[in-house]
Design brief:
CATH superfamily of the largest domain: P-loop containing nucleotide triphosphate hydrolases
Order of helices and strands: EHEEHEHEHHHEHEEEHEEEHEH
Structural class: alpha/beta
Radius of gyration: 25 Å
CATH topology of the largest domain: Rossmann fold
Helix content: 25-40%
Largest sheet: 6 strands, mixed
CATH class of the largest domain: Alpha Beta
Length: 328
C-alpha cells in the first residue's frame, strides 16, 4: 500500500470581487460576486515508502498548496488523499506524528531560544521517549555538525546553521514522511551539499520517504506540475533521454592547439588545454565524437556532461510534455 496516495486532488481559493469607489462598496454590501482561482486541479499520484521524489513546478504551479494539503494545513475542495493511512486534515494530530516538514522560508525553531531548547520543546510536544530523543539528537548533531552552535540563540545563527537545525528538528520524532519545500533556497554551495548528503543518508539508513518541492539531483523520480495540473510523473532518466538533445564532451588535451575541429560537434568554450564540445545526440553518438577527437588529437582525459535537469524542465514548461516526441 502506498504511503502517500492522492486521487483527483483539487483546491480552489475563492475571493470576494471588490469594486472601486463608494458605489462599488455599497453594491458589494447587497450583492457579492466571487472569483475562483484553481490552485491544484486533479492531482493523482501514489508514492511508496522509502521513495525520494522531487515535486517540481514554477512559482504558482501549486506545489506548496499540495504539500499543505498533504500535511493537513489546508482542506482540499474535492478529491481524496491519504498519508500513512490517515486523512491529514481529519486526523491532524496523528498525521503530525508521522510527518516532518521543512519550509525554506519559515522555521519551526523558537527565535529567541538556544537551538537545544527548541529541540527540548519539540521533544515535549511530540512526546518523544528520553532514550530515543537522546539517540536521535546525538546522531543528528554528529552528521549535521550542530555541536558548535547548539547553545546559540536561533536569531544569531547563519541561514545555513538554521537550516541544519530545522532539518534536525523535523527528524527528531522519527517521521515516516518528510516534506521539503525549497529547503536549500538562499544557501551557498557548501551548505546545499551538506543538506543533500543528510537527506540521502537518512533516506538510505532509515527508509524515510522524502518529498522535495525543488529540482533535486538526489531524486530518481520527479512529479512535474504546471498551473495546478500534473504534467509528468516518472523517472528523471526518461526526461533526459526524451528532452536532453545535447551533450557536452569535455576534452583535456596533452598538447596545446589553437583550434579543436571535430565533425558533428561545435566548440562551446575552452580554457587552456580543456575544451568543451557540444553535440546533438540525435544526429551523432558520443562514441563517434570521442573517436573523431582521439583520431586527430593527443588526449589525456575525456568525460561526458549530461544536460542540466533545470534546463530540461524549463523546456517542458515552454513547449509542453509530449509522450510521442521522438527521443532526443
Amino acid at each position: 500500500m502506498p504511503i502517500i496516495e492522492t486521487r483527483d486532488l483539487r483546491k480552489i481559493f475563492r475571493s470576494l470581487v471588490r469594486r472601486p469607489g463608494v458605489a462599488g462598496t455599497l453594491r458589494t454590501l447587497f450583492s457579492r460576486d466571487y472569483e475562483d482561482k484553481i490552485a491544484v486541479e486533479g492531482i493523482t499520484m501514489a508514492l511508496d515508502e522509502g521513495e525520494l521524489v522531487g515535486y517540481i513546478g514554477p512559482n504558482g504551479a501549486g506545489k506548496s498548496t499540495t504539500i499543505k494539503m498533504l500535511t493537513g494545513i489546508l482542506v482540499p475542495t474535492s478529491g481524496a488523499v491519504r498519508v500513512a493511512g490517515l486523512v491529514p486534515w481529519e486526523q491532524r494530530k496523528r498525521n503530525a506524528r508521522n510527518i516532518g516538514v521543512v519550509f525554506g522560508q519559515r522555521s519551526q525553531l523558537y527565535w529567541d531560544l538556544p537551538l537545544i531548547e527548541s529541540f527540548e520543546l519539540l521533544r515535549a510536544i511530540y512526546g518523544i521517549k528520553p532514550d530515543r530523543y537522546k539517540a536521535n539528537l546525538d546522531h543528528f548533531t554528529e552528521i549535521l555538525e550542530l555541536d558548535p552552535f547548539l547553545r546559540t540563540p536561533v536569531r544569531q545563527l547563519s541561514l545555513g546553521q538554521r537550516m541544519r537545525g530545522d532539518f534536525a528538528a523535523a527528524m527528531l520524532h522519527d517521521p515516516r514522511v518528510v516534506f521539503l519545500d525549497e529547503p536549500t533556497i538562499g544557501l551557498d554551495i557548501v551548505a546545499k551539499e551538506a543538506i543533500r548528503e543528510f537527506v540521502a543518508r537518512v533516506n538510505r539508513e532509515r527508509g524515510t520517504t522524502f518529498i522535495l518541492a525543488d529540482v533535486e539531483r538526489l531524486c530518481r523520480r520527479i512529479v512535474l506540475i504546471d498551473r495546478g495540473t500534473l504534467v509528468y510523473d516518472g523517472e528523471i532518466d526518461v526526461l533526459r533521454d526524451r528532452y536532453g538533445t545535447h551533450r557536452t564532451l569535455i576534452v583535456t588535451l596533452a598538447e596545446r592547439v589553437d583550434a579543436l575541429e571535430v565533425d558533428g560537434a561545435e566548440t562551446e568554450s575552452h580554457e587552456g588545454d580543456v575544451w568543451r564540445l557540444r553535440f546533438d545526440r540525435r544526429h551523432i553518438s558520443a562514441e563517434v565524437v570521442i573517436r573523431r577527437v582521439a583520431d586527430r588529437y593527443c588526449v589525456s582525459d575525456l568525460s561526458i556532461e549530461e544536460p542540466e535537469l533545470e534546463s530540461i524542465i524549463r523546456r517542458i514548461y515552454l513547449e509542453g510534455y509530449s509522450e510521442t516526441m521522438a527521443p532526443a
